[in-house]
Write a structure and sequence with these properties.
single chain, 566 residues, five-stranded mixed β-sheet, elongated, mainly alpha, 27 helices
């Protein structure tokens, strides 16, 4: 018995870390959507393209993301398949790995005790949990974010060990390979660290940056041309890539709440919180205090303590805040969207600073109490289904494919889908039918002339600089006749090739309801994407109604399938 007690005492930190990690793994496995969300469908559709050319082409022309996670997922799928649990297991493993990494970072900065407190915060943080079962690159960014911090700390402590400098360069190169704005994180990190060396350590010797930047440059050179193209495609399109997003000042508050409050983890836009949740909070104000005010107050207290210390962790926090500020400025200028998940790469720095600050409280029992209270808000939230909200609903593609399979399409049948045809093809075999996809969720973003030239007449778009998006397309939107170009395209590619008994299936989303076009034009002048998607639905319906007979309509929750024949 004595030997067991001695063993536990000797390895108590390791045992606690294992238990905290297992708790984090359990929480990450417990939550999640039953089906993939649309972003995840796009991720899987891209990752299953040919390696590497097919993946790179899809990323450059559709998803507009960096390639590393898609490469990893490609081989993960080849090894283990596409079962939803398997797809989610990859980010779960990555997200769980952040817990011991957080411990190592805080331990190197201060103490083992700080490491345990920080590990608890990471284990139960609902923001990190939510994106640790989301099949996209966010969990990979979490891991790389912590690794980058760890190697920076080790280099600062052991400057004679140049290996940590090169490991930092390798990690930051991987960040650039993972996230379009990764270069911005790398820049802010090294810039703020140099400020720390000069201002706090009074060390003006910055020669170490030469081998660092040389290594970083060599490592990122292969992906640089690709990343330049991706960034250009997000900025030089018919209209900005982030047309779904309009910056508002309260999005800053939403992001802050999202990082630490389990009840609003997915908020980055108006209306993200469900009606059920708002009703629940209005009826139970104590729950609002528990799931919003309490965790935010604890986290902010830790962050303030870190800022007051003015040491390396303070500057690690500053680098994260500078990155967030740069994203915020970009959002205000219409270049990026500003949302909580967009700062995922720097969030490890933020939550590390919160844990570090709490560990600096002189009364250890008080620090532990605050961290355990924070943990309680996260754990108890997961067991409250009415509060388990998600900004992104499960993808409709699965239901769409299920319905289409019941029609038993034959060669000669045609499917027309204006939006998300790329997703649809992933889960429905279109190889034996005539398939027309405009994929306007992508084609308008990157100014894909092969698609756009099949929709607009030459005078439908007003050309010129500094013209508001709505003004560019005002003439087209106000004309309730389909363009001659689109009419000709549908006639030649869809209607004329029809054989006796063949059918045309038009799949449209309810959010772009053609019958509401007039109302949308008045209500959504700032959302040109919604207006163009609705107008395209309207025009397609007009063309098909004029030339064919509508024989059936199948309505689902958020889309409908209209069937035509000659």
């Amino acid at each position: 018995m004595k030997e067991i007690i001695n063993f536990i005492k000797k390895y108590s930190i390791f045992i606690w870390l294992m238990l905290i990690t297992l708790l984090g793994l359990f929480l990450r496995l417990k939550t999640g959507l039953i089906n993939l969300a649309n972003d995840e469908v796009a991720t899987v559709a891209t990752a299953t393209q040919s390696f590497p050319a097919g993946i790179l082409n899809a990323l450059e022309t559709k998803n507009l993301h960096a390639p590393l996670f898609y490469f990893i997922l490609h081989f993960w799928i080849r090894l283990f398949g596409e079962d939803i649990f398997i797809l989610r297991l990859l980010p779960v493993i990555l997200g769980t790995a952040c817990i011991p990494l957080a411990y190592l970072c805080a331990k190197e900065l201060f103490s083992k005790y700080a490491g345990i407190l920080t590990a608890i915060l990471v284990s139960v943080n609902f923001f990190m949990i939510s994106y640790s079962h989301f099949c996209k690159f966010y969990a990979l960014l979490q891991v790389l974010g912590f690794l980058s911090i760890y190697f920076l700390i080790k280099f600062d402590k052991e400057k004679s060990e140049k290996k940590y400098l090169y490991l930092l360069a390798i990690t930051n190169a991987l960040i650039i390979y993972t996230y379009v704005l990764g270069f911005l994180f790398v820049f802010t990190q090294i810039a703020v660290y140099l400020l720390y060396r000069i201002k706090v350590k009074r060390d003006k010797n910055i020669k170490f940056t030469i081998p660092y930047f040389v290594a970083l440059g060599i490592l990122t050179l292969p992906v640089a041309p690709f990343m330049v193209k991706v960034i250009q495609n997000t900025q030089s399109s018919v209209f900005p890539a982030f047309v779904w997003y309009e910056f508002k000042p309260d999005h800053i508050q939403s992001a802050l709440l999202s990082w630490f409050c389990p009840a609003v983890t997915f908020i980055f836009q108006d209306g993200a919180r469900t009606d059920a949740t708002q009703t629940y909070f209005s009826i139970n104000p104590l729950y609002f205090i528990l799931f919003t005010i309490t965790p935010l107050a604890i986290a902010l207290f830790g962050l303030i303590k870190t800022v007051l210390k003015k040491d390396l962790c303070t500057y690690i926090l500053y680098s994260a805040l500078l990155f967030v500020l740069a994203e915020l400025i970009g959002a205000i200028l219409g270049k990026f969207s500003f949302c909580s998940r967009g700062a995922m790469v720097c969030f490890p720095s933020i939550i590390l600073a919160a844990g570090y600050g709490l560990a600096r409280i002189k009364t250890k029992n008080l620090a532990l109490l605050l961290v355990l209270t924070y943990a309680y808000t996260g754990i108890s939230f997961i067991s409250a289904p009415v509060l388990s909200i998600y900004n992104t609903r499960p993808s409709e593609i699965f239901k769409m494919s299920e319905i289409m399979n019941k029609f038993n399409l034959q060669e000669g049948d045609c499917v027309i889908i204006p939006v998300r045809g790329y997703y649809f093809q992933k889960y429905y075999d279109t190889s034996k039918i005539n398939f027309i996809s405009y994929d306007i969720n992508y084609s308008f973003k990157i100014n894909d002339k092969a698609v756009i030239n099949n929709i607009f007449d030459s005078d439908d778009i007003i050309r010129g600089e500094n013209i508001a998006p709505y003004e560019k397309f005002e003439q087209y939107l106000d004309d309730y006749k389909p363009s001659q170009t689109l009419t000709q395209h549908i006639s030649n590619d869809c209607i004329k090739p029809m054989q006796d008994g063949s059918r045309i299936f038009l799949i449209t989303y309810n959010s772009y309801d053609a019958e509401k076009l007039n109302w949308y034009i008045e209500a959504y002048k700032d959302n040109i994407y919604k207006l163009l998607a609705t107008k395209l639905n309207y025009d397609l319906q007009e063309i098909l109604d004029k030339n064919l007979t509508q024989i059936q309509t199948v309505k689902a929750e958020n889309f409908k399938i209209t069937v035509y024949e000659k």
